[in-house]
Amino acid sequence: MRSTAGGRTVLPYPRTRLLMVDGGQMALRKHTIHGLVEFDITRAREAIRSHKEQTGETISFTAFFLACIGKAIDQNRHLHAYRSWRNQLVIYDEVDVNTLFEVEVEGKKTIRPHILRGVNRKTLRTLHDEIRAFQQGHAASQEARFIDWFVRLPGFVRRGFLWFLFKRPDLIKELYGTVLVSSVGMFGEGGGWGIPAPNHTLQITLGGIARRPAFFEGRIEAREFLSVTISFDHDIVDGAPAARFTQRLKELVEAAAGLEDERQPHEAI
Question: In the chain, how many domains are there?
């Protein structure tokens, strides 16, 4: 219940924020390394703008980026491995990406997760359609039902469940996905990085987009750069494979991989 008195406003603490509280406490136990990088997304953004001019449809940049992540992890699957309670590494063939979206719940903007399964085996178009379907029907999603149930549990029960969960990779994959992608850049303009408190072996945080002069193909011109934070669990991933993954992801994004296939008009989404 909202109350106003004595020059202040008191609001109920949102139950869904308890997910952040629990996740932050779990993240303190991990040995995370962060890489702050920039990707030149000029070519990708131009392809998206060109497609919209020709067809009236705006291709999802998130779907494009997820498609690139799937391809990059497919060549570096150790990046989404998990350590089991038996002290074994479990490496999955399919890349399940837990992506955070801003949606409206009971008239208020909130963040809801959605797991896109087998991202490394899907086209950009398929990912695009799945994202839009979730945004339109998020209230009935599996993730929404789980959150509504989970946040009603006592704190010690939630944290005990998470401790149990992160000892069992198959449960992580089913309930949390093997990779997490979030975006802080969607809430403002300009460049800048976000530093997350991750629980996954690999978390990618998309920051802001900055437009500035850069040396490109022998000349100086204005280019668009996306700030990207790539966070790894150092207990599982070493610096060399992390660097190779980052380089491959950068190559795919800067080459606008998959966008050239979007040539035929589709239903505007």
Answer: 1
